[in-house]
Design goal:
The chain has about 170 residues and is mostly helical. The protein is built from ten helices and two strands; from the N terminus they run ααααααααββαα. The protein is elongated, with a radius of gyration of 30 Å.
Length: about 170
């Protein structure tokens, strides 16, 4: 973990950066717990190689720094680490529950987007789409020839009375 002196130096050297990142997110980034949680999530999902865990942590940090939208994290993990999309999605979902959910208000501020609850209970900041009102579709009136074909003919409604002898 970074100590206080190094943090003050970084804040002096990069004041714009620290002004744009909410304090709650900065605490999460600098926390000793965050790397442990990321490592646990990776191992739980079958990613135990140290190099891959570090790359996953890097991608998660990009989300925390506002450089990668949370909703893009699974795709980034799949592309950058050649992970199976199902595993990448599981890692994202757990990261969202364990790390992002605790700072979702700050992430919303950082991304200036609305946090939407997905069906799988993962929160993902997304922009609210503007949806046009649905157009009313009217059914075409049936033509007379279609109406006649829809009614059964007389032959179809009367029982078959023809009987052939069996002798």
């Amino acid at each position: 973990m970074i100590d206080e002196i190094e943090l003050k130096k970084l804040k002096n050297d990069y004041p714009d950066f620290f002004e744009n990142i909410p304090p709650e997110i900065m605490e999460t980034i600098l926390s000793e717990e965050t790397p442990s949680k990321i490592s646990e999530i990776c191992i739980k999902n079958g990613v135990g190689e140290e190099e891959k865990v570090e790359k996953i942590a890097y991608q998660i940090t990009l989300v925390l720094l506002g450089q990668l939208s949370p909703k893009e994290l699974p795709k980034a993990l799949e592309k950058e680490l050649n992970l199976d999309f199902v595993i990448a999605k599981k890692i994202y979902t757990e990261t969202d529950q364990v790390i992002f959910s605790k700072i979702k208000e700050s992430l919303t501020i950082l991304y200036k987007e609305e946090v939407v609850q997905e069906a799988d209970s993962a929160t993902i900041p997304t922009k609210t789409p503007e949806v046009a009102a649905p157009k009313k579709i009217r059914a075409k009136p049936k033509e007379k020839s279609e109406e006649k074909s829809a009614q059964p003919s007389k032959a179809e409604t009367t029982p078959d009375t023809y009987r052939e002898s069996t002798e």
